Amino acid sequence: MAVEVKLPRLGQGMEAGTIVRWLKSEGDAVAKGEPLYELDTDKVTQEVEADAEGVLLKIVIADGEVDVGTTVGVIGAEGEDVSGLGDGNGAAPQPASDAPAAEETAQPTEGATRAAEPRAEAAPATEAAPAPEAAPAPEALPTPAAGTGERVKASPLARRIARERGLDLAAIAGTGPEGRVIAEDVERAAEAAPAAAAAQTPAPEARPSPSDEVEVVELTSIRRTIARRLTEAWEAPVFQLTVTVDASELSATRERMVELMREGEAKPTVNDVLTRLTAAALMRHRAVNAHFVEGRIHRYPTANVGIAVATPNGLVVPVIRDADRSSVQQIAAVRADLVARARDGKLQLADLEDGTFTISNLGMYAIEQFIAVLNPPQVAILAVGSIEERPRVEDGELVVSPTMTMTLTCDHRAIDGSEGAEFLRDLKTFVESPALAL
């Protein structure tokens, strides 16, 4: 019997997703668990696996934004009649000027974002005033073919931009494959629309205006998510604690590990060693390894440490699970994979979930010290500065050694000052003597 393929709910609060492309064509054999299509959620683009085995008999919705639970395809036995399945869905929702914008990938966050969050809605966009019939079409925009009543072929990004700019996709000529409307087409249409309208009215006397040089940047979906998450973080009553540590042994430990690494292994970084040391300190202070959820504190038995990663689309926080039970080399391998996929936009929702603590390291940018913003519902985040040669007093003598600052931001609803201070004290001890934790 044929099985309808429905859009899954991949995270708490997810109400819709955007089908980017199908990885199978109608008539292809499909195995259970095999990737079927790519889905863009509010945090990541990931492959959705088939829940059944058989033949992909019908693709109901080829691409575009789709509500959770909607039938997008049908799998069954070869030759099975499925003409009536999936027809009740209707076509995928058409972008409209007053439709809420769907969010892209992700968190914190990245200071960070979290995978399972409600979708934010954008304010209704204002429709552009139609130009008089006598107005000539701008040269940059070839006149599209007359509508056929079929759904306009357009990329998900083009639909998103058109919705945010209040543009009608049917009025935009596509330059992509088979006339598909792509993001560049929508951008050109958005730039040409004001020029076409201005051509119908006498030009006002030219006056220099500062606004002529202002670049207005529309928020991407991930930036809207980051904005919402950081606003939530500022609602928490927080305090910060800062320590300066001698990073001599931390750097030396990392260098020795690099010397001992085998061919093909990921090269450990200072942050990899610090992640392992932080996980050890978290196991001594579970009050810091916790979430604050609906007036309750959830303390966790393992350290799932999130690493803030900057990507072209915004900050995301992939999670290194069970960092307290992993070696530095294992952490390095997981981190290398997560960072590579984060920058390629290939993270899965599972990569962003279940973090219990976050590290944000800006040392590679020569930032000496900073304060990181909480990553709710986590109750603490560690901001790490650069390792630099600085003078300090040791046994009454002035010495110069590599030092590093660490600033812990704590949610005071879950952590008292003494608890945060004890955690930071132990972490300082581990950084200055890594053998105690490793």
Structure, described:
The termini are far apart. The strands form five sheets. Strands 9, 12, 15, 16, 17, 18 and 19 form a seven-stranded mixed sheet that branches. Strands 1-8-6-3 form a four-stranded antiparallel sheet, with no helix packed on it. The model is unreliable at 90-149 (pLDDT under 50). It is built from eight helices and 19 strands. The protein is globular. It has helices at residues 156-165, 183-198, 221-234, 248-260, 270-284, 328-343, 349-352, 417-432, and strands spanning 3-6, 16-22, 29-30, 35-40, 45-49, 54-59, 64-67, 71-76, 238-246, 290-293, 296-299, 305-307, 309-311, 314-316, 319-320, 357-361, 380-384, 388-394, 397-411. The chain is 24% helix and 23% strand. The chain is α+β, with helices and mostly antiparallel strands. The longest helix has 16 residues, at 183-198. Helix 5 (270-284) crosses helix 6 (328-343).
